[in-house]
UniProtKB/TrEMBL annotation:
CDD domains: DUF820-like (cd06260). GO terms for molecular function: endonuclease activity. Keywords: Endonuclease, Hydrolase, Nuclease. InterPro entries: Nuclease_put_TT1808, Restrct_endonuc-II-like, Uma2. This is Uma2 family endonuclease. Pfam families: Uma2. It comes from Actinacidiphila oryziradicis. The keyword Metal-binding does not apply. Residues 31-192 form the Putative restriction endonuclease domain.
């Protein structure tokens, strides 16, 4: 008969509370090609977008070429820190001030004050883009929010954020073109059809 020597057990540490932001960071590391956001205290994990979404995003990036690197940058998937708790969003596309690097808050998210425009192309999570994010972005003071709503076949341009909501919502449908507010730094004209690819 063999007897194992008695060893003192290491004390089990008290459980360390895990925050939602910790879980979000773990999800971001563990789920490549997924977008991880926290909105209204809820963790949102969105799978990679489809090909038409990516194509529309590439076309949009090219449409903003006159603006990029002059006095602003056009960036895909940059984190935007929201003013409530650990909430943050990662818009598909953003126009940000050139000195954005000096305004990182935490977790690779930046101060909303450096964002001139955010844009979302709807995917499986279209309700978040259409129903929840307008209030979040308006509450953060983002001057222009563009929603390319593939589910309903329209582009919505939200401007004039006040009191946690956008005061102006302009809706454009297939076959139409529109010009974004020049407050983003340049005149950018877009065709709705190219934004609603499926």
């Amino acid at each position: 008969m063999t007897v194992a020597p008695e060893r003192p057990c290491r004390p089990v540490p008290e459980e360390t509370p895990v925050s939602l932001i910790d879980i979000a960071e773990y999800a971001a590391r563990s789920l490549p090609h997924h977008r991880v956001e926290i909105l209204e205290g809820q963790l949102l994990v969105t799978p990679a977008a489809d090909g038409p979404h990516g194509l529309a995003l590439t076309d949009l990036t090219l449409a903003f070429a006159a603006l990029h690197r002059k006095d602003a940058y056009v960036i895909q998937g940059i984190g935007l820190w929201l003013p409530s708790g650990d909430d943050h969003a990662v818009p598909d596309l953003a126009v940000v001030d050139k000195e954005f690097r000096d305004h990182e808050i935490k977790y690779k998210c930046y101060d909303p004050a450096i964002f001139r425009l955010v844009l979302e192309i709807t995917s499986t999570n279209w309700r978040d883009d259409v129903e929840r994010k307008p209030d979040a972005y308006a509450g953060a003071g983002v001057p222009v929010y563009v929603i390319c709503d593939r589910e309903h076949g329209e582009v919505i341009v939200c401007t004039d954020p006040r009191g946690g909501e956008y005061r102006t919502r302009s809706v454009y449908r297939k076959g139409e073109t529109f010009v974004l507010p020049e407050s983003i730094g340049a005149k950018v004209e877009l065709e709705v059809d190219g934004l609603l690819l499926k």
